[in-house]
Design the sequence.
């Protein structure tokens, strides 16, 4: 597929208020997405781990988009990070997902960590470090339950246990491990992944998002220094913008997948498909039914992106408001509005991604099912991402807010 075709169906333009720095980041993301698209099908089909793509993320300077300029970063608004990740997902959603924990945990650190720790981590990020996650455990009663606990070792700690769904820790330089401290408080232990006792296992075998490095991370009597701990338990019972931030980044992935499937549908109609024998047209692009279908799919993708953009703008407002000296009720109003808009973005992008990924096959007939095209990856990727936040609960939250004025439930993990 040629780069000429990639930009033929344009995404929505960023709002005029977006900073020049954000415009530049979006331009870099769009350029890189074209490159990522060239190998996306092969990476998925052959499960080629994306070390080369990660090198490109660094080359295009897309790891430090929330790092303060004073510490070597190119800080843009959080909502613009959402747009960057959506652009990257249009090229390869697995590669884009590498950045989701990276930015989620930077934001959690910004909100919850002390200044010394923030400066240490952001300096590492400015040097090209990727942040991974180690939060979810297998075998617990509920998916978000944390049982692994630090043990005291003088003034420091030791950590043993196993985590799964550790996106993208297989490739990361730092990992945020969500554990309990000796006082049963939830904390992050922020550790270099090359520390003695840390083992990263490439055992993720999901049907979609196959090369996100989301396997097992093993901690075997790992040293954890006191200054590497962030206490987060206080925040689990409070509403804050980083919860919506985590959820909307997954919506960004789904928005990108909708456009990726649309790109393949359009290119296949132009370059690969043959007209049905029941038509009287010389080329598929002249078939009015295919024209109508592609128009429908393009509108679905654009509509979802616009809903995502509204949520991204709300996230930016909330990320600033969180640090302003606002009355609690005023802050709560902003955070609730952001949570509702985020739920709408999750719903809209999920519907669009699954719809476009399914209807892609109607553009070109039986040949679209050939394994060599790997068109089914779009549906597999969208469906896998959708499992992070069961969408029925987001729909319920939207409806309960509109009907009763109920605030969405507190959310913390992603």
Sequence:
């Amino acid at each position: 597929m040629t780069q000429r075709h990639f930009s033929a169906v344009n995404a929505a333009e960023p709002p005029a208020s977006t900073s020049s720095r954000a415009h530049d980041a979006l331009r870099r993301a769009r350029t890189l997405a074209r490159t990522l698209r060239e190998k996306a099908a092969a990476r998925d089909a052959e499960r080629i781990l994306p070390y080369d793509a990660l090198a490109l993320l660094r080359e295009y300077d897309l790891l430090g988009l929330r790092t303060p300029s004073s510490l070597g970063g190119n800080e843009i608004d959080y909502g613009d990070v959402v747009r960057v990740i959506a652009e990257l997902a249009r090229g390869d959603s697995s590669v884009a997902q590498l950045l989701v924990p990276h930015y989620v945990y930077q934001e959690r650190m910004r909100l919850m960590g002390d200044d010394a720790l923030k400066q240490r981590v952001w300096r590492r990020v400015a040097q090209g470090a990727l942040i991974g996650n180690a939060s979810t455990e297998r075998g617990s009663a509920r998916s978000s339950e944390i049982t692994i606990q630090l043990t005291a070792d003088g003034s420091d700690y030791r950590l043993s246990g196993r985590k799964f769904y550790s996106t993208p820790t297989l490739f990361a330089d730092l990992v945020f491990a969500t554990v309990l401290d000796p006082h049963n408080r939830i904390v992050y232990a922020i550790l270099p992944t090359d520390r003695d006792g840390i083992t990263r296992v490439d055992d993720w075998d999901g049907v979609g998002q196959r090369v996100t490095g989301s396997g097992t991370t093993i901690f075997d009597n790992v040293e954890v220094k006191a200054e590497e701990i962030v206490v987060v338990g206080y925040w689990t019972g409070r509403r804050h913008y980083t919860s919506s931030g985590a959820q909307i980044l997954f919506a960004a992935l789904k928005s990108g997948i909708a456009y990726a499937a649309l790109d393949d549908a359009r290119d296949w109609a132009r370059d690969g498909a043959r007209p049905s024998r029941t038509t009287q047209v010389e080329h598929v692009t002249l078939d009015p039914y295919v024209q109508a279908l592609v128009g429908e799919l393009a509108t679905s993708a654009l509509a979802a992106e616009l809903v995502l953009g509204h949520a991204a703008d709300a996230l930016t407002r909330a990320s600033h408001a969180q640090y302003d000296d606002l009355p609690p009720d005023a802050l709560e109003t902003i955070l609730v509005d952001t949570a509702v808009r985020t739920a709408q973005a999750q719903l809209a992008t999920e519907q669009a991604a699954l719809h476009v990924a399914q209807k892609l096959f109607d553009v070109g007939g039986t040949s679209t099912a050939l394994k060599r095209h790997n068109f089914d990856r779009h549906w597999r990727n969208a469906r896998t991402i959708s499992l992070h936040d069961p969408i029925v609960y987001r729909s319920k939250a939207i409806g309960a807010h509109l009907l009763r004025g109920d605030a969405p439930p507190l959310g913390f993990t992603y």
DSSP finds 13 helices and eight strands in the chain. Confidence is low (pLDDT under 50) at residues 1-8. The beta strands are 131-134, 151-153, 156-163, 174-180, 186-192, 198-201, 216-224, 229-231. The radius of gyration is 22 Å.
